[in-house]
């Protein structure tokens, strides 16, 4: 992890020496634009800065509340999910700025790295490839949310930024794919990556991101299959990846989290130096949580199947509404805290989490759910996934956040093969069957290929529970064009409501609205649209 122990913010500026007769004479007592890039350490510091801008924990977790996986009680996430967003909504502007700031930093790097004359050519080629990957990733995120966006493939002036036009989404996607295909040969395989370079972008990362980009388009599934097969079958060339034996350890155990072969690309964190703290507002209060800023939904809980492979609403599943959390997919317990959950502390002691009001025999007044409380979870569920037992006070964590895992490649492959009519027992065993076995399923009804009946829904449900809390669900419901169904109506919580006539006693929280004619795209931020009239606006929004 040495590469990421100094994520420095580097400011590159041209410094004019006072009194110099020639403007191209560089000062000797400080860096100028003429000398900065000639120092190898400065080049790596600038690269570190680009890595630090790839993504952040807020973007990573917040996306869950923009889907039917989670509920956020306030702020822009609530505004967007309830269908009340406008071009003035702060998150639209904040995310737009984050992505284009990263692109700006990458373009500065690419415009100047050739000024370095001491790094070997192969090394420079690799650094350029890493930076182009980051730039492509930012463009992909932009087009995913905003549709048509400006392609910024060089460092532009403020004046150019105020006149640039948007490119069609198809052109942006082509730019991203072309970039990823152009750089793959200049990146190392994870197989040959030394331990002190863990977390750097590799051939596998370029292929995995390309697979995600093409999967999201829906019309290039053969290409998705071919890319996934490279990662699954030719690991000597493209990297060595496999499923971790423990699902929960992948997110919580620091040793596994930072050294797993399942991670293809992760946001790198280092205890005390670069950390994240979102979990403080995800955990139950009785184990140190502060408030519940993002709570899992009953809709997500319901998609965790029974150990026999049947959904909770299927005949013969054995589901008991009065004891709903037994005999369920083990990933439920690894992901979500429910009533009477056995919480394992960092020292391996345990605590029962009483959520249903009035059930805590020791602290009956401190309910983990209280209707109308701004501190307790509004759905009576909390998160367990990404709990870090080695965290500092208030859940300050140095664990990595996985952006792309090998499990996603298996899910991409299964979905692509199904869309092509090529799903069979062999594909099942490599993908859904393997993921369920890793999760802890042993019943033949869960791990054996069930035939192709309802397979699309099975794959989508598997993707939802495997990748829950990793920011993928919002992408999926949008690309499948089901957001207009699952994001319209009430979000629910556990069956704790006193009003049994309302939704059979399940807690009702937010009434969500999703306008299919508008909400599949976010608004171009009003401020940017006002500065640059060439940007225009997406349908249904006004500046």
Can you offer a commentary on this structure?
By secondary structure, the protein is mostly helical. Helices cover 39% and strands 6% of the residues. It contains 22 helices and 10 strands. The N terminus is likely disordered.
Overall number of strands: 10
Widest sheet, order of strands = 1-3
Estimated structural class: mainly alpha
Instruction: Report the portion of residues in β strands.
Output: 5-15%
Q: Summarize the biggest pleated sheet.
A: 2 strands, antiparallel
Helix content: 25-40%
Compute the separation of the termini in Å. 45 Å
**Helix count from the secondary structure assignment:** 22
Task: Give the uncertain stretches in residue-range form.
Answer: 1-29
Instruction: Compute the average pLDDT.
Output: 92
Computed over alpha carbons, the radius of gyration is: 24 Å
The coarse silhouette is globular
Give a quick precis of the structure.
The chain has about 550 residues and is mainly alpha-helical.
Quick tags:
mainly alpha; disordered N terminus
Describe the secondary structure blueprint for this structure.
Blueprint: H1 40-52, H2 57-62, E1 70-71, H3 75-81, H4 90-112, H5 121-146, H6 158-161, H7 169-183, H8 203-217, H9 221-233, H10 235-238, H11 247-252, H12 254-259, E2 263-267, E3 295-296, H13 298-302, H14 330-335, E4 336-337, E5 341-344, E6 350-353, E7 382-383, E8 401-405, H15 406-419, H16 425-430, H17 432-439, H18 444-447, H19 455-466, H20 473-479, H21 483-486, E9 489-492, E10 508-512, H22 526-531
Antiparallel strand pairs: 1-3, 2-8, 4-7, 5-6, 9-10
Helix pairs in contact: 1-4, 4-5, 5-7, 7-8, 8-9, 9-15, 15-19
């Amino acid at each position: 992890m040495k590469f990421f122990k100094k994520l420095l913010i580097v400011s590159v500026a041209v410094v004019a020496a006072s009194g110099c007769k020639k403007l191209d004479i560089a000062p000797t007592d400080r860096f100028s634009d003429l000398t900065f890039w000639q120092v190898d350490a400065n080049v790596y510091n600038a690269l570190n800065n680009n890595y630090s801008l790839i993504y952040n924990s807020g973007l990573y977790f917040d996306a869950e509340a923009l889907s039917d996986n989670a509920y956020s009680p306030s702020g822009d996430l609530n505004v967007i999910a309830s269908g009340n967003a406008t071009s003035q909504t702060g998150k639209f502007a904040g995310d737009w700025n984050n992505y284009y700031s990263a692109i700006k930093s990458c373009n500065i790097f690419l415009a100047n790295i050739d000024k370095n004359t001491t790094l070997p050519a192969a090394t420079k080629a690799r650094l350029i490839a890493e930076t182009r990957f980051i730039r492509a990733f930012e463009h992909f995120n932009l087009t995913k949310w905003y549709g048509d966006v400006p392609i910024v493939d060089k460092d532009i002036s403020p004046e150019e930024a105020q006149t640039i036009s948007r490119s069609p989404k198809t052109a942006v996607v082509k730019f991203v794919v072309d970039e990823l295909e152009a750089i793959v040969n200049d990146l190392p395989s994870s197989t040959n990556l030394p331990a002190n370079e863990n977390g750097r972008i590799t051939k596998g990362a370029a292929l995995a991101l390309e697979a995600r980009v093409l999967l999201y388009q829906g019309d290039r599934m053969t290409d998705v299959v071919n890319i996934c097969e490279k990662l699954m079958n030719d690991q000597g060339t493209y990297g060595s990846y496999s499923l971790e034996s423990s699902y929960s350890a992948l997110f919580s155990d620091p040793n596994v989290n930072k050294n797993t072969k399942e991670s293809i690309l992760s946001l790198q964190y280092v205890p005390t130096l670069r950390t994240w703290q979102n979990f403080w507002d995800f955990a139950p209060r009785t184990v140190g949580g502060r408030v519940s800023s993002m709570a899992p939904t009953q809709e997500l809980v319901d998609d965790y199947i029974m150990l026999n492979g049947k959904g909770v609403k299927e005949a013969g599943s054995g589901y008991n509404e009065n004891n709903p959390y037994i005999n369920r997919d083990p990933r439920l317990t690894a992901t979500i805290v429910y009533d009477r959950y056995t919480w394992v502390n960092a020292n391996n002691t345990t605590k029962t989490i009483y959520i249903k009001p009035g059930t805590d025999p020791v602290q009956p007044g401190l309910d983990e759910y209280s209707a109308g409380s701004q501190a307790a979870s509004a759905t009576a569920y909390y998160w367990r996934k990404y709990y870090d037992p080695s965290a500092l006070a208030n859940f300050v964590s140095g664990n990595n956040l996985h952006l792309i895992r090998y499990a996603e490649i298996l899910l991409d492959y299964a979905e692509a093969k199904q869309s092509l009519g090529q799903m069979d027992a062999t594909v099942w065993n490599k993908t859904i069957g393997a993921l369920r076995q890793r999760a802890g399923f042993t019943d033949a009804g869960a791990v054996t290929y069930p035939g192709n009946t309802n397979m699309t829904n099975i794959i989508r449900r598997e993707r939802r529970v495997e990748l829950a809390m990793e920011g993928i669900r919002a992408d999926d419901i949008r690309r499948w064009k089901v957001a207009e169904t699952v994001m319209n109506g009430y979000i629910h919580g556990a069956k704790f409501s006193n009003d049994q006539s309302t939704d059979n006693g399940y807690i009702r929280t937010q009434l969500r609205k999703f306008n299919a004619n508008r909400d599949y795209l976010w608004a171009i931020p009003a401020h940017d649209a006002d500065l640059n009239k060439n940007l225009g606006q997406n349908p249904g929004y006004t500046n």
